[in-house]
Amino acid sequence: MRTASGHEAVATVVDPGSFVLWDDQVVSRDPLNFADSAPYPERLSRATTESGSSESVLTGMATVHGTSVALIVSEYDFMAGTMGVAAGERIARAFEQAAAAGVPVLALSASGGARMQEGPLALVQMAKTAAAARRYRAGGGCLIVYMAHPTMGGVLASWASLGSFAFAMPEALVGYTGPRVAASLLGRPLPPDAQRAETLLESGLLDDVFPLEDLRPRVQRIL
Question: Which of 25, 70, 176, 218 is the most exposed place for a label (fewest CB within 10 A)?
Fold first, then answer.
């Protein structure tokens, strides 16, 4: 199953030409001087070139049928959507900016876990994004989350599970841990389809499952 790029997802959901980026200058660094087959800054630069985005999350303001919304959109093509320090900063700031503007947040998530190349700093961002989402919700903000395939690890565990409305793509893999990680911890494979969106819907953990193309009219009805 192919996950739409962040820019493709934006184009599918919001009014044409309405998306204005926030915090695009907030980008990842190399805090650990991480040693790998390729220098970490080189890997980040290559990810930017290949994805057309400067990070694994895009944030900004847009309109849906004329109604203003703040956007948090995973760019899965950037290192498979892993959460680095800059991604966490962008997400936390987006909730703060949405609260200040008094607008709902529409989040399109797709991700793996934190980037170990950025060490504990990346893990701390999970707590920071969760706290920012909770403050936004506690202040009366409306958070609509659409989980694409896959929405796993830190993204689900920190902020994507905190939506006022939680939707998912058909057959999307959704979970706090990936299947291989879960199997290694349990010593056995997970039951078939345990982490599929349809299973979570049947269990009451999602509000609905539908294609990305149907998100725009659904958001219009909610707002």
Answer: 25
